[in-house]
Specification:
The structure holds 2 protein chains of 2 kinds. Chain A is mainly alpha-helical. Chain A has a 5-stranded mixed sheet with strand order 6-5-7-11-10, with helices on both faces. In chain A, strands 1-2 form a two-stranded antiparallel sheet. In chain A, helix 6 crosses helix 29 and helix 10 crosses helix 25. Chain A contains 34 helices and 11 strands. Chain B contains 10 helices and 28 strands. By secondary structure, chain B is of the alpha+beta class. Helix content of chain B is about 25%, strand content about 35%. Chain B has a 7-stranded mixed sheet with strand order 2-1-5-6-16-15-12, with helices on both faces. Chain B has helices at about 1-15, 35, 40-45, 85-95, 110-120, 155-160, 235-240, 260-270, 400-420, 425-430, and strands at about 25-30, 50-55, 65, 70, 75-80, 100-105, 120-125, 130, 150, 170, 175, 185-190, 195, 205, 210-220, 225-230, 245, 250-255, 275-285, 295, 300-310, 315-320, 325-330, 330-340, 340, 345-350, 360-365, 375-385. Chain B is elongated, with a radius of gyration of 34 Å. In chain B, strand 17 and strand 18 (about 250-255) form a beta hairpin. The chains are: A mainly alpha, B alpha+beta. The interface of A and B includes residues 117, 615, 740 and 743 of A.
Chain lengths: ~750, ~425
């Protein structure tokens, strides 16, 4: 059933992909002009407003479909499969939620993760994603559509991307107008920076969080504009959804106070702002505290203090305003000084007491990382080891945003040229998002929506300006006749209309290029599930490496139910979701020292490692090895991070021991002895010296490191090979039990 | 269903311990005269019910310990030090639960040495012998002082029992015993002993208490191995010999009869599992006054019990001890407590789980010299409180309750006043 469904999607998809991506941008962007054209075409008696409305509806529904279908590449190429690492945990916990119900999910103590520590899943996750998927599942089942929970999970992110496009339309419409909204919606439907996190199968928090983020901002702008309690309350509900979905909610709860402060400083304080912020802060904070994982953070942690401080300042501001209206200026000035001093003194005393009692702990890593987002990754190796925490390169800005990189400052310019409350919000959002996106690759996700809105702002302003020129065929005459009167006006050129046409076609070309780029990026870069690898052979055919699933299935079928698997933390979620076995560490990197233990075992010689593995009750060890196929992100290439993380808790593990005297990381004969004899090396290269990998090379030639391995023909004393997948990508070893006669093992 | 499982378990347990009480013994000899020269030793075994099958090892005749993948003997007495045997077969025999007694001498072959070494007992080089110029048997006065008088080692008494054995006469090769919990030296030479080359130069190779004379291995699968450096220790001639010592030029009688026979009996009783065999069964734990849940909750009170039994040579009887400990651990031990013994073999205790969640191991790791090691455990997760298991109303929160309710009431009052209050003074002002 599922397959045919996808096939039908495929057919649909192919048709849609060819036309809308190119046409949508050309057709719907100059909406205002088209309205006129369509009016000529349609000879019925439908009024302009109705036609406009129908056209908008058509465009929006096309965007809706486009946003969904462009994210289906991976499903069509591979299958309906969950991608990457974290989504596997989300998928597994969603299954638990669907099977066991809400209360058991809330109280779920997962004994198969972080052995032997266990993990309280209910209290250590943002449950929004699972709750959303489960709700969709329950609704569909209530109307007798018996869809598998996996398919709900796979397709949730694309569906939410469509919803995000709709919300972005509303957001941009609130800031500028409908035409900007339509362009923004079209932009965000295919912007690669967002697609990277929301393709089908990428079942992660970010997929729904961006929707919640834009929804919150839309409602916030609306609340500030109207000053209505209703919209503010709606905004705090959207904020609550965001809090339940993603840790990035901290961005909202800092951006909005920043905006309020800027409004105060620029003298734009209004009762609308007061109502909107106070309602949002009070309701939002109370709601946020209902999420177990967030708990008391909104009133204790330093990330939330800015919001609290702004709340206080806003009250003072309002109070002083009121008092001023009842006092003479001299009295007020005296009153202002004394009260301000008193308040500052009380605030300082409260702060000092809080710090002294440990209730507030400002000088932690969290605090530093707020001011210097690079702090964590410079000081905590486990954060630095994640590739998506690296700084963003210029190339990746262009790759993820394409023309929006250039339209972004243009949009800024247009915003500044016409400052309104909403524009100021957009400006602040844009500036902060650029800053954060520059710090970390993964925060590109936050920048993408605002880049779309600002880009749409710029495009829509430009189009509106030049479309007018195009529409009126007489500027040449007008400019000629009024040239005497307005000599300084530069645009009084005789080629106004041509200029307009050139500008419009230039923008059209840019938009076409953008849509080509987005489709290409989606297809080439962001649609591989990473659990199934593909490579091109010499004859151009595709070779599929399905080793991961092969190995996880092997684990699930051939090991005891309570077997404990040791692997590097990257694979923890996948092993527990697909292999259904207990793991020592997983992608929820909450316990640094436990991960360091695993790193230490991997970095130690076999006998030392055996002691650690016995102490941790390890039954099997799993390593990822790419030397045979040339898969570069394998465990040997990650090995230095294991050493670093192990070294951060155990000073006996010294990174320089694993380098050659010249400071190189090598696996051939020149390699450091500690490297050539550590457990990870032995497990990866066990019996590798018997294999010819490349013509004209000696056996045991590693195709990733491009070197012949330095330690050949060794035997394993404390472990035995249990399984090696077809392309040697995954190798599993069994830890031997202590020898009957004491033997080699002195335990 | 449960009964079937229990029955299956019982069969398994029986299968594991089937060898206990087994009496089939194979005696391997260099030369058939040993049968007569050691007749008292073999006779005592026969009297204790062992069926002995003798086999003389000559040349390259191979020993078959197993037939169709089954070992045909429960015990093997290897009194053929110079024979060339298939050491792997003997090691496998031990790994399958068979018991092995090796008598060696200075001509010990490499293959026999290999078997001993696989059991953690490294016999000294061929053509060496233990010499003691102080504690030697007086009859050996004119010879090379190779018939030495050995006293029991302190640690050996734990295995050998409380009874003090008379000094033992020993002539043979020494051994070095690995420092491992599974190995024990049973008999050690006195500090004045050393190891000397039998022929050629008299260069001493080892001095001091290091040469062990008789050593044992208690394997993890409950199999037992004893290696004696002296085959003569079990011989009739040394059984009856008096122990005389030359002190200050005078011959004094230490003992009218040597302790060899007593020692041999103690060794055979131990190595053939007549004593010191332990087993545990029925490890149970549950909530106090409840059943065993899938997961405990932190701070639960848990009842724990296990039955430990000892083999008395004929049947399993309750084990009597008061030093069996339970360890409750999750990475580190959180509780370590001595179990109470009810005299009927049931060891039990009641404890409160710590305020820590995780997968806990309830473990009994009972290692005593001379006893088979007991290692039994059960793993069970301990979960934190559910959301509704916390206390509902706590004293320290009453100010907050009061605050919340007074706020509610205040808001209602304020609303009422705000909505229904007529602002008369303002009228006065406008007037």
């Amino acid at each position: 059933g599922t397959l045919t469904w996808f096939n039908s999607l495929l057919g649909f998809h192919r048709v849609k992909m060819k036309t809308p991506t190119k046409e949508l941008n050309q057709v719907k962007v100059p909406a205002k002009i088209l309205v006129a054209d369509v009016k000529d075409v349609l000879e019925s008696g439908v009024s302009t407003e109705k036609q406009e409305y129908l056209l908008k509806l058509l465009i929006l529904s096309l965007i809706y479909l486009l946003a969904f279908s462009t994210r289906l590449f991976s499903v069509l190429r591979y299958e309906s499969v969950i991608h990457e690492f974290d989504p596997y945990f989300n998928y597994r916990s969603t299954k638990y939620l669907v099977n066991e119900g809400i209360y058991n999910f809330l109280n779920w103590f997962d004994q198969s993760a972080w052995y032997p520590l266990g993990r309280i899943v209910g209290g250590t996750i943002y449950p929004g994603l699972m709750a959303t998927a489960a709700a969709v599942y329950w609704v569909l089942h209530a109307v007798n559509i018996t869809v598998d929970i996996r398919n709900v999970c796979v397709l949730l992110a694309p569906w939410f991307a469509s919803n995000t496009a709709m919300v972005t339309y509303l957001f941009a419409k609130e800031i500028k107008d409908e035409s900007a909204g339509l362009i923004a919606a079209a932009f965000i439907a295919i912007v690669p920076g967002y697609i990277s996190r929301s393709v089908a199968g990428s079942y992660d928090n970010e997929g729904i969080a961006i929707f919640a983020l834009i929804l919150t901002y839309y409602l916030w702008v609306k609340a500030v504009k109207t000053g209505s309690l209703f919209w503010s309350a709606a905004c705090s509900l959207a904020y609550f959804y965001m809090v339940s979905a993603w840790g990035g909610y901290v961005f909202i709860i800092n951006l909005i106070p920043l905006y309020v402060l800027v409004m105060l400083l620029t003298g734009r304080y209004s009762s609308r702002l007061y109502t909107a912020y106070c309602t949002l802060y009070v309701l939002g904070t109370l709601l946020a505290m209902q999420i177990t994982f967030v708990g008391f953070q909104p009133v204790q942690s330093s990330e939330h203090m800015a919001a609290f401080g702004t709340f206080g300042i806003l009250q003072l501001f309002g109070a002083f305003n009121w008092v001023r209206s009842h006092m003479t200026p001299e009295n007020f000035s005296r009153f202002f000084k004394t009260t301000l001093l008193a308040i500052l003194a009380i605030a300082f005393a409260g702060f000092a007491i809080g710090v002294a009692t440990g209730y507030i702990s400002p000088w932690t890593g969290r605090f530093y990382s707020l001011f210097d987002p690079t702090w964590a990754k410079e000081n905590i190796p486990i954060i630095a080891s994640v590739s998506e925490h690296q700084p963003t390169t210029w190339a990746s800005f262009f790759f993820d945003l394409h023309i929006l990189t250039f339209l972004f400052p243009a949009g800024m310019y247009f915003c500044f040229s016409k400052l309104t409350d909403a524009n100021i919000f957009l400006i602040i959002y844009g500036i902060t998002a650029v800053y954060f996106a520059g710090v970390m690759v993964r925060l590109m996700l936050v920048l993408a929506p605002v880049a779309c809105v600002l880009g749409a702002y710029a495009v829509s302003c430009t189009l509106q300006t030049y479309a007018k020129h195009l529409k009126k065929p007489n500027p040449v005459v007008v400019s000629a006749s009024t040239s005497k009167r307005n000599i300084t006006v530069a645009q009084a050129l005789p080629v106004q209309r041509e200029l307009g046409a050139i500008m419009l076609s230039g923008i059209a070309i840019m938009l076409v290029l953008y849509s080509f780029h987005c489709t290409w990026v989606t297809s080439e870069a962001y649609s591989s599930p990473s659990i199934v690898l593909a490579a091109r052979q010499h004859d151009g055919s595709r070779l599929i490496f399905d080793d991961f699933r092969e190995a996880y299935r092997w684990l699930g079928q051939n090991t005891p139910d309570d077997a404990r698997i040791m692997s590097w933390w990257d694979y923890g979620y996948q092993i527990s979701a697909m292999g259904n076995r207990t793991v020592l560490v997983d992608n929820n990197t909450w316990n640094n020292s436990h991960i360091a233990q695993v790193g230490k075992a991997m970095a130690s010689p076999e006998d030392k490692a055996y002691e650690i593995m016995r102490a941790l009750d390890v039954d099997y060890v799993l390593v990822i090895f790419g030397g045979l196929t040339g898969y570069a992100s394998d465990d040997i290439n990650k090995f230095l991070w294991m050493v670093r993380i192990a070294g951060s808790t155990d000073p006996n593990i010294i990174e320089s021991n694993y380098y050659t005297p010249r400071g190189e990381f090598r696996i051939d004969k020149e390699g450091a002895p500690a490297m050539l004899n550590c457990l990870m090396y032995k497990l990866c290269y066990y019996r590798f010296s018997e294999v010819y990998t490349e013509q004209g090379r000696a056996p045991g030639y590693d195709r990733v490191r491009n070197a012949e391995i330095g330690n050949k023909g060794f035997k394993l004393e404390y472990l035995e090979e249990a399984f090696t997948s077809q392309h040697w990508l995954v190798r599993v070893y069994k830890v031997k039990t202590p020898d009957n006669r004491g033997g080699i093992v002195n335990l | 269903m449960k009964a079937v499982l229990l029955f299956a378990l019982l069969i398994c347990v029986c299968a594991v311990f089937a060898e206990l009480g087994g009496k089939r013994a194979l005696v391997l000899l260099d030369d058939s005269y040993i049968e007569s020269s050691h007749s008292k030793f073999f006779k005592s075994l026969k009297e204790r019910g062992y069926s002995l099958k003798y086999q003389e090892l000559k040349g390259s005749e191979a020993v078959k310990l197993s037939k169709f993948g089954q070992f045909e003997y429960d015990h093997v007495i290897l009194f053929a030090p110079s024979a060339d045997i298939d050491s792997d077969e003997f090691i496998e025999f031990v790994d399958h639960g068979g018991n092995l007694l090796i008598g060696a001498n200075s001509d010990v072959s490499d293959s026999v040495r290999e078997v001993a070494s696989a059991c953690g007992i490294d016999l000294d080089d061929t053509d060496t012998i233990v010499v003691d110029h102080v504690n030697f048997e007086a009859q050996d006065y004119d010879s090379k002082h190779t018939l030495i008088i050995a006293d029991q080692d302190a640690s050996a008494s734990l295995i050998l029992g409380e009874a003090k054995v008379a000094p033992v006469l020993f002539r043979g090769v020494g051994a070095k015993v690995r420092d491992h919990a599974l190995n024990y030296p049973l008999l050690k030479a006195s500090p004045s002993a050393y190891v000397s080359k039998l022929t050629g130069s008299k260069k001493q190779t080892k001095v001091g208490r290091s040469p062990s004379l008789v050593a044992a291995l208690q394997a993890r699968n409950h199999a037992r191995v004893v290696v004696s450096g002296s085959l003569d220790l079990f011989s009739d001639s040394l059984y009856d010999a008096p122990v005389k010592k030359i002190q200050d030029g005078k011959t004094t009688t230490v003992s009218e009869r040597s302790g060899n026979e007593d020692l041999a009996n103690i060794i055979t009783r131990w190595v053939f599992q007549e004593k010191g065999a332990l087993r545990s069964r029925n490890l149970q734990h549950n909530l106090v006054g409840g059943s065993k849940p899938d997961m405990y909750t932190i701070k639960d009170n848990v009842e724990f019990s296990v039955i430990i039994e000892e083999w008395n040579g004929k049947e399993w009887v309750p084990y009597q001890a008061n030093d069996v400990q339970l360890e409750v651990r999750m990475l580190d031990p959180y509780i370590r407590t001595t179990l109470k013994n009810d005299g009927k073999g049931r060891f039990y205790t009641i404890f409160t789980l710590p305020d820590v969640y995780g997968v806990f191991t309830f473990r009994i790791d009972y290692q005593r010299p001379g006893y088979a090691g007991l290692h039994t455990f059960d793993r069970i997760p301990v979960r934190p409180f559910r959301h509704n298991q916390y206390e509902r109303f706590i004293d320290s929160a009453y100010p907050y309750y009061a605050g919340a309710f007074s706020m509610l009431v205040g808001l209602c009052l304020f609303s009422a006043v705000f909505l229904y209050h007529k602002d008369t003074p303002s009228k006065v002002k406008t007037n």
